[in-house]
Design brief:
Radius of gyration: 23 Å
Largest sheet: 6 strands, mixed
Number of domains: 2
Number of strands: 14
Strand order of the largest sheet: 6-7-8-3-9-10
Number of helices: 12
Distance between the termini: 61 Å
Bound molecules: adenosine-5'-triphosphate, magnesium ion
Length: 370
Amino acid sequence: MSRRASGPTEGAVELRGIVKRFPGVLANDDVDFSVARGEVHALLGENGAGKTTLMSILSGAYRPDAGTVSVGGAAMSFKSPKQAIEAGIGMVHQHFRLVQPLSVAENVLLGAPSSFRLAGNATEDRVAELAEAYGIRVNPSAKIWQLSVGEQQRVEILKALFREARVLILDEPTAVLTPQEATHLFSIMRKIASEGRAVIFISHKLDEVMAVADRVTVLRAGRRVATLAIGDSDKSELAKLMVGREVMFRVARGDHEPGAPHLTVDGLAATGDLGLPALRDVTLEVRAGEILGVAGVAGNGQRELTEVIAGLRPATSGTVAIGDRDLSASAPAERIAAGLGYVPEDRLGTGLIPSLGCIDNVMLKRTDEF
Ligand SMILES: Nc1ncnc2c1ncn2[C@@H]1O[C@H](COP(=O)(O)OP(=O)(O)OP(=O)(O)O)[C@@H](O)[C@H]1O
Ligand SMILES: [Mg+2]
């Protein structure tokens, strides 16, 4: 991967003084952000720092409460994503927006301005040509539902390239990728930047930012705290800017002997939301004093596993025991009473009732005690 030797020169995007409020939250607080042509610019920040909001303003999904947006030196006031696409902004969202029964080529064409419409098979040819040019491996005539998540992401990138995006925004693109796929994506990003386009890479993973970006802008609680050249910074400085204090990359782990099993999962199977098998014959044990990690690319059964353990999703076979009690047929409340605590992945959607206060939320699982 070759990066630019010299500093960025020409402006592709210039955001000045961007303010965006949601009820009770100042999501973007007077943010300045500029990206040059030919650079990969990382937008780094913790959950809720305001990264997606800022890029949703640049891509025409939200309108700022204050501040200005200019693209290629011209002032813009996008009233819709369509206007941003026409100005050369392409955004690949965290959750893809593809139509499953349609083919890759049909999806690429969908929603493209009429000037990009091609006759008959010409779209497939153009998609194949673009895929070849950028080393993006995907079959233009395959249906979306047949593709892996990594392949679907490549379709989203092709969609932006087909529309001749001059600024490509990728919102946490590596969350759904294997490490090998992530490395491949980085080479595609570098290739796109090498043509003089700008790539904005939203992430909270420091190693990835260090590996692919030329510059990085750090957001914290809605404010821009720094913009740095990658060569002038390092992981610990970026971590400190991101969270606002020193970060230890190593955790002291004392020697200890694990005790009795607290959680025993045996031969567990379950189906996913679409009725397909999500877990097959999963067996694991967590003993007193242990932390057990479950590794895997998103979408490989981790969520279903935690839901079955918590009693929120039925198992089709296998058992879950807490201590020496088999709770396979028990409701969530009985499992909580038996000592299970569960912090779900989607804390806002399933974990909390955001409109209630902290005390009410804490009491929710213990209502029968009051
Ligand atoms: N449509 C919305 N309505 C209300 N609040 C919102 C909305 N979108 C974002 N927020 C709030 O604005 C803040 C910034 O959110 P944003 O999604 O931009 O953060 P982020 O940096 O992209 O985080 P993450 O890493 O979790 O994706 C958060 O407090 C979030 O809850
Ligand atoms: Mg986000």
